[in-house]
Write a structure and sequence with these properties.
Oligomer: single chain
Distance between the termini: 31 Å
Strand content: 15-25%
Structural class: alpha+beta
CATH architecture of one domain: 2-Layer Sandwich
Number of strands: 8
Strand order of the largest sheet: 1-3-4-2-5
Helix content: 40-55%
Bound molecules: zinc ion
CATH superfamily of one domain: Hypothetical protein apc22750. Chain B
Largest sheet: 5 strands, mixed
Shape: flat
Length: 370
């Protein structure tokens, strides 16, 4: 891992041979692991007892790393160069039928006397043959991808994935989008299309969350087909990002943006809460696309209050909130033009935000008490 400012981390309150010059106070970091991780963990319980906790412990490591990262940023922001007496806690929180796992780290930010010893610098004066080949591949595929008709074949994808040519992601994104727009046929081209759909997802899933965010939330143009491809990709790769989504909401059609709420990310931090609340606010204030009026719904019936959906269908309000709810022939939209499944997605999303809100609230309170 590369770090701009090297912060010294220690579980003890003193470091051998280093004098503490100043204490900068207690700092904390809390990181929550997404709900899907726990589900996956339960599903692979047998693996766990078999001795390979694999993916789960990987996620724990990531949560820990992220929390340490936050702590280091906080230490830097108060001018400290070390964090002493570090204490780590793992905790499970639940509510609304969901549970999440969280990592909390507490430590004391301090300024200690800097050691004058130089750390070993990695040489930049030589390059091994593998690294050189890698750079050659990148150049080769960069120029190939400049041709809008080009799609990588199986051998190309093997080279790209085996050498982790992640620098090519922005150049392969147009290929991926093209492959998602083109129907698969039983031909060589069909194979390349299928490969470009699947292998690009593998490549994108192999990079860090922060880097992937930059790629998937880039320029989406005005094309609603690209919107739905990107929404789908975000869901598939667990690349939910509240801040980026807030920026996309005004240009997205409401059905795509509701789908986006089903996307997850693997770790949530305190800084997610505010943009998440803003997203909930956005969906709470969706404008009405239908209206209410008094009308006769049958030849001999009396005039009654009806909802007229955005497609002009009339449903008596006594029949529920969705357009001809009991009649499968009708569209099922409510006064805001969204269907029952979509309302459920929005509600579940709000519950998740409430859990996170409560969770981080609780932790802010308990850490200020210290
Ligand atoms: Zn309708």
């Amino acid at each position: 891992m590369y770090k701009a400012n090297k912060i010294l981390l220690s579980t003890t309150h003193s470091v051998d041979g280093c004098r503490v010059l100043d204490y900068k106070g207690v700092i904390t970091a809390n990181v929550v692991m997404g709900v899907n991780i726990l589900k996956e963990f339960v599903a692979s319980f047998s693996d766990f007892f078999g001795g390979t906790s694999g993916k789960y412990s990987q996620e724990m490591d990531k949560a820990y790393e992220k929390a340490i990262n936050i702590l280091e940023k906080k230490a830097t922001s108060v001018g400290a160069n070390s964090i002493l007496g570090i204490h780590i806690d793992y905790d499970e929180i639940s509510g609304g039928g969901k549970s999440m796992l969280m990592v909390s780290i507490v430590g004391t930010a301090a300024i200690i006397e800097q050691s004058t010893k130089q750390s070993n610098n990695i040489s930049t004066e030589s390059i091994d043959i593998d690294s050189l080949n890698r750079l050659l591949y990148i150049e080769q595929y960069r120029s190939l991808s400049a041709n809008p008709d080009w799609l990588p074949n199986n051998q190309d994808w093997e080279i790209i994935l085996n050498n982790q040519l992640v620098e090519l992601i922005p150049h392969l994104l147009p290929c991926y989008i093209k492959s998602r727009k083109t129907p698969i046929t039983y031909s060589d081209d069909g194979d390349r299309i299928r490969l470009s759909r699947n292998k690009f997802i593998s490549l994108l899933s192999s990079i860090e969350y922060e880097d992937a965010i930059d790629y998937v939330y880039g320029d989406w143009t005005e094309d609603p087909r690209i919107h739905s491809i990107m929404v789908d990709t975000i869901i598939q790769c667990h690349l939910f990002n509240a801040v980026a989504i807030l920026q996309k909401l005004p240009i997205l059609d409401k059905h795509s943006s509701i789908q986006l709420l089903t996307a997850e990310k693997k770790l949530y931090t305190e800084s997610d809460v505010e943009p998440l609340q803003e997203i909930v606010g956005f969906f709470n204030h969706l404008p009405d696309t239908g209206h209410y009026e008094k009308a006769k719904t049958g030849l001999f019936s009396k005039e009654e209050e009806v909802m007229v959906c955005e497609k002009g269908h009339k449903t008596p309000v006594t029949n529920g909130n969705f357009c001809c709810y009991a009649d499968t022939q009708k569209c099922g939209l409510n006064i805001k033009g969204i269907n029952e499944a979509e309302v459920t997605i929005i509600n579940e999303f709000s519950v998740r935000v409430q859990i996170l809100e409560k969770f981080f609230q609780k932790n802010t309170n308990s850490s200020t008490k210290n």
